[in-house]
Amino acid sequence: MSWLKLILPADRDSASLLADALAASGAISVTIEAAEETPVLQAALEEVPLWSRNRVIGLFPEHVDVAGVMREIRASTALPVAEPEIDLLPDANWAFAWMAHYKPFEVVPGLWVCPTWMSPPRPEAVTILLDPGLAFGTGEHPTTALCLEWLLQQDLAGRTVLDYGCGSGILAIAALKRGAAAAIGVDIDPQALVVARENAVRNKVDDRFRALLPDELPEDFRADAVVANILANALVALAPRLATATKPEGRLALSGILKEQAEDVRAAYAGEFELERRDRSSWVLLAGRRRLRS
Questions:
Q1: Does 20 show up as a binding residue in the annotation?
Q2: Coiled-coil stretches, from where to where (predicted)?
Q3: CATH class of the domain at 141-289
Q4: Domain ranges in the chain?
Q5: pTM exceeding 0.85
Q6: Under the phi-then-psi rule, with left for phi > 0, alpha for psi from -120 to 50, and beta for the rest, what region is 269?
Q7: Is residue 77 a known part of a binding site?
Q8: Architecture of the domain defined by 3-92
Q9: Is 144 annotated for ligand binding?
Q10: pLDDT tens digits, the chain, 294 residues: what are they?
Q11: How far is Cα 65 from Cα 62, in angstroms, rounded to an integer?
């Protein structure tokens, strides 16, 4: 299998936003490099080096819908993004680089993500075995980290969890490793569902995990906790569905939201939830409890 590199020009102010948007749109890796041999004009922001002229590079599966990715990026950033330069990259060129550079890391205190070819560095901690692959969600993106941090703060023992937009399944797997009785992962991408199921097997939680397309989720399904790490426009459109999928007094966490989009998402859920906000980098998580109706 080959891969596509989508290369976007960016100035110093837009490089980080474009990098985050590429990751949220499904890139399995994102890098920022200087567009020309010029010195760095500003110290690193959010650990990303920024030059006056940059190339933001996202790596995608060969058959990705490039036009669809670009629509998502333009909608989420509100930037006049130029058409990308596209390079074809043979599989062998990146696979070994991933194995050389992808190391175990602590996403949030007490929770590690570890590739399957390495031993967990802290056996006493919660560890998710996860390899870089086709589905979004390795724990490195700020939105995933925000969701994992939120999950670790919940009492999930014996609870049912819905991970809407599950990607790799990392959030559902984390919930199950924290004691949830059952978790359902929902995604519009059939390949993501395959990956999520495989990751559940690797982490020995597959007996409590199901991966479904949106139309396969029963209308009457209700979860104790719902987490959705997708784009803001989708969260607004899904507000009625995600609200009804949350039990009365159940918990909801929403991410994939840029700072300037937070109030629009909050407004879409205001009838059912009082949502608190957490920020990380350019991204926001909104979380709260569903109101109990008399």
A1: no
A2: none
A3: alpha beta
A4: 3-92, 141-289
A5: no
A6: alpha
A7: no
A8: 2-Layer Sandwich (3.30)
A9: yes
A10: 678 889 999 887 788 888 888 988 888 878 877 776 443 333 332 334 456 788 898 888 888 899 999 999 999 888 889 899 998 877 655 555 556 656 788 888 889 988 887 888 888 888 999 876 544 566 678 888 999 999 999 999 999 999 999 988 999 999 999 999 999 999 988 888 988 999 999 999 999 999 999 999 999 999 999 999 998 999 999 999 999 999 999 999 999 999 999 999 999 999 999 999 999 888 999 999 999 875
A11: 9
